[in-house]
Amino acid sequence: SSSVTKSRLQLGAFRSDAEAKKNWKKISAKFPSLLGKKEAFIERAAIKDKGVFYRVQAYPFSSKSQAASLCAKLSTKGQSCFAVVK
C-alpha cells in the first residue's frame, strides 16, 4: 500500500459497501471543517465468526499521531473513531 493511505482514521464498520459509503457521506457532512479535505477508504474485512465488514476510514494523514489528533477532536463532538496504521 502507498504511504498516503498508510495512516488512517477509522470511523465505523458496516455490513455492506453501500452502507459504509452512505455513512461516510453522513459523517463527513456532519464535520466538514474536520473531514472536508479527507477522502474515504473503504476497507473490506472478513472477521472470524462474524462475517464481512466494510470499515470506513478517512485519509490522508502524515502520521498515526495526526490521525489520533483529529480523532480526539471528533470524539469531543460525539463521533467514535480510532487511528490505524496499515
Explained architecture:
- With about 90 residues, the protein is α+β, with helices and mostly antiparallel strands.
- The protein is built from 3 helices and 4 strands, in the order βααββαβ.
- It has helices spanning about 15-30, 30-35, 65-75; strands spanning about 5-15, 40-45, 50-60, 80-85.
- Strands 2-3-1-4 form a 4-stranded antiparallel sheet.
- β2 (about 40-45) and β3 form a beta hairpin.
- The model has no long low-confidence stretch (mean pLDDT about 95).
Radius of gyration: 12 Å
What class, by secondary structure content?
alpha+beta
Name the helix and strand elements from N-terminus to C-terminus, one letter apiece: EHHEEHE
Q: Determine the N-to-C terminus distance.
A: 8 Å
Shape descriptor: globular
* Uncertain ranges: none
Chain oligomer state? single chain
**Fraction of residues in helix:** 25-40%
Chart the SSEs and their pairings.
Blueprint: E1 7-14, H1 17-30, H2 32-35, E2 39-47, E3 51-59, H3 64-76, E4 82-85
Antiparallel strand pairs: 1-3, 1-4, 2-3
Structural descriptors:
86 residues; 4 strands; alpha+beta
Question: In short, what is this structure?
Answer:
With 86 residues, the protein is an alpha+beta fold. The chain contains 3 helices and 4 strands.
